[in-house]
Amino acid sequence: MKKIGVLGLQGAISEHLDKLSKIPDVDPCSVKYKEDIAAIDGLIIPGGESTAIGKLICDFNLTEPLKARIKSGMPVWGTCAGMIILAKEITNDPRRHLEVMDINVVRNGYGRQLDSFTTEVSLPALSSEKIPLVFIRAPYVVDVAPQVEVILRVNDNIVACRQNNMLATSFHPELTNDLSFHRYFSEMI
Q1: 123-152 confidence digits (pLDDT tens)
Q2: Confidence (pTM)
Q3: Alpha-carbon distances, residue 94 vs 25, 51, 136 (angstroms)
Q4: Where are the bilayer-spanning segments (predicted)?
Q5: How many other CB atoms are there within 10 angstroms of residue 140's CB atom?
Q6: How far apart are alpha carbons 31 and 57 in whole angstroms?
Q7: Domain coordinates of the chain in residue numbers?
Q8: 116 in a known ligand binding site
Q9: What is the three-class DSSP state of 29?
């Protein structure tokens, strides 16, 4: 059984836990404290508000324990705000958070709340069906290091990428009925 945690500080926590509970051999749990980090096999950093999540990571003294586990190979997936939390560079924000993934992101790259949108894509490596994507004030990646694999682009913007044990997506798979990305992350463990 794979124990997958969802960082339970702010954002779409229950939605990710719900999706994970539908995957066989996955035991989902909320992660809030240092001792929780040692007990999981993988972690999702959910979408929400990156400034709030980053502040809470500091307030709960989770920065170093998270960085250590990620650097030692624990799979981690950042969705939307989680992508910003993982990024080494943020084009339009001086704040930095975990700084573990060699990507440069733009916060609110698609604009404000009113500019949020949905679309569907074909991604044969993950699903034989079209995958619905939900973008809510979403970031996107403007630059990646050579060791980062680009998984998906939408409108020429990088919206999903992977570097070793780290996965980042601009969109919110937890807000759809599709389990493709949750299964993909589970298989990284």
Answers
A1: 888 888 899 999 988 899 999 999 999 999
A2: 0.95
A3: 40, 11, 22
A4: none
A5: 23
A6: 11
A7: 2-187
A8: no
A9: strand
